[in-house]
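Quick log. Single chain, no ligands specified.
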Amino acid sequence: MRIVAAAQGIEIRAPDDAYFSYFNSPYIGHSLGTAVDIYPRHQEWGGPVPAPVSGRVTRIKKLHMGSIKPFPTDDFDYGIALAPENAESDIVRVMHAEPAVREGSKVDEGDEIGRTIRSRYFNYWTGPHYHVEAMPASNFTRSSKSIPLDVRMEIEPHQIGTAPSNIEMTITEVTDDHAIGYPQEDIHTEIGDLSGLSAQDASGSAMGIIDGGLSHYQHGGVFGRYNTDVGEIVCVANNQVGTAASSRGLVTYFRRGPSIRASIDGIELRGLSCFLYPPQYKKRGMPQLILIPKRYGGFRHLLEDDSSGTLRIEPGRDRIRHEDRHES
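-> predicted structure:
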């Protein structure tokens, strides 16, 4: 298990082979820098969720969700409160897991506490994951009261290669939800054993790994540069994707604008989903990249497993659909 965040002395851990994100969601904790989404290696609905801390289960809340989605979902979501051993009044809340524990249960870090569910808080492109944040126990239901996270990484970002606008891809998996591809060109940045799509500044210099949904969400983050100036331009493949709004340690938070337009072999995408990946998500040294179709099932008869294609990234219309504000 690796430490992916800390909050007031509470260390939050994820499996070494999980990928994760702090900003690839429109929900409030992911714009305030108070939450992390952890995507376990199994990537299965109903797969195990390990405890991110050791402690006691103090509360489980069953959540009624909104309207039925046009793709399969579970009927309920859950919030699980874990009181860490070293915390007096704070808890760690885990969401999107059907509990396999009871209130009062004692768990150790890494113990299974639930199974991943496909929540109606998600949209079709959202993979199996669990949401983790720390907060005062008295504010268990209020994400706006979550505690800001400190991210601890040994930082020596290294950009590999250049940032072309046309990128040859090997497509390994195509589903109704997304396609997974691996660039055949070096367009990633590495930080320790983590890697992901490179972000650059206006001069083309590497800023670090980009974390977010391009450009279907209104914000994102970059990991790799200390004390980025507010107002600094954030680019991907020589296209501006946002402007730095704040900086905390090695994390830069940016607001989207203008948007980019991405396509694969001329098929327009809803967007690119960008994460921080451990080595298990590399092929031939390149980390994976998730491509989102314009609509659920939008890749049918257009893309195939074990194929190749050209990803093109270019300036796009600066717009965001209303429903995007309510999807994870």
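The longest strand covers residues 55-64.
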